[in-house]
Amino acid sequence: MGDKRGMQLARVMHLLKELQRHPGGRHYRELAHDLGFSQRTAYRDLGALRAAGWPVERGPRAGYWRVRESAIPGIFFTPSELTALALARQMLIGMPGSPFEAPMRRAFQKIMSACDREGLKALEASDRRMFAGLRRSRPYLRGQVWFAVIMDALHGQKTLRLSYFTKERAAESVREVDPYGLVFHEGAFYLIGYCHLRNEVRTFLVDRVRSAKNTGRVFTLPPDFSAAEHFKNAWGILKGKVLVTVRARFDAAVAPVIREGRWHPSQKMADGPGGSVILTVQVAGWEEIRRWLLGFGGLVEVLEPEELRQSIAEEARRMLSRYGRKLAGK
Q: For 56-71, how does the pLDDT look when each residue is reduced to its tens digit (9 = 90+)?
């Protein structure tokens, strides 16, 4: 079955390329002869292409087929592909001031100008029926000037000089950073790069960049660097140096939600008593997973590590103290 589908796909691509080479169209018999398959097969494949939403149509003369003039040269979009593009557009223009908002608007203007009537209908329908909610993303209108400098350094592999505000110390520091990549996580952009001040790869929240200057010095990006691989063991964006095993038991009330989710590449699940589920992950530091666990309130119990268990217990005591005083005084 796989070989047959592969052969059909190859035939289809040959048909499309041949039609592209002849804007005025070609007769299906000529296509069959030149490409080495039967006239019946050529006619059937052309009809199947049109039915599937590819930009091919019958030509002005009987038996002739051509690529629609409104199609983007060399690129063909099916309705489902246009729907995916429309959703991506909603996501990126939902980040005001980000480095991708304006380029996405311009790119989509090009796509829409090249689409035919059916393609425009598919895009309009997608905008009505699909919604990418990014209401918690940060408006980067204030910081877009630094985005321009950061993106230029990323593309040119040039070292940046950053003035960066560190929240923990409540102070600014100047450091030189080789920008490796940009990461979008939970509504915020982070720059990842080699920090010459700390002599290691660090992660910087773009919001806290107070100024950025391109030094003009070119650096060599490690050939095996991958942002996805770099954060593979992190729960989110914070990456500790030591892997920690975290085990937590979720009550039956939320067990289905936990079982259905993909929370971490290392996750393992086991049935617990009374319909509960035990989630085990190995993460590089437990600070971020702590915040996530607290969101489940009394429906989860941390089993290990003991340090995390005690940290959440202390947080629960503080909450009880605060709310307990208010309840006692009502």
A: 788 878 888 887 765 5
pLDDT by residue (tens digit) across 187-235? 888 999 999 999 999 999 998 999 999 999 999 999 999 988 888 888 8
| Locus of tokens 């393609």 | 119
Contact 252, 276 (CB under 8 A): yes
Alpha-carbon torsion (289, 292, 294, 296), positive or negative: negative
b/e burial code for range 126-156 (CB count within 10 A of at least 16 → b) = beeeeeeebeebbebeebeebbebbeebbee
The dihedral sign for the CA sequence 259, 91, 99, 115: positive
Distance (Å, rounded) from C-alpha 56 to C-alpha 59? 9
Domains and CATH numbers, the chain: 2-67 (1.10.10.10), 79-129 (no CATH), 144-230 (2.30.30), 243-325 (3.30.70)
Q: In Å, what is the CA distance from 168 to each residue of 105, 171, 172, 194, 242?
A: 37, 8, 11, 20, 21
Task: Specify the amino acid at residue 132.
Answer: A
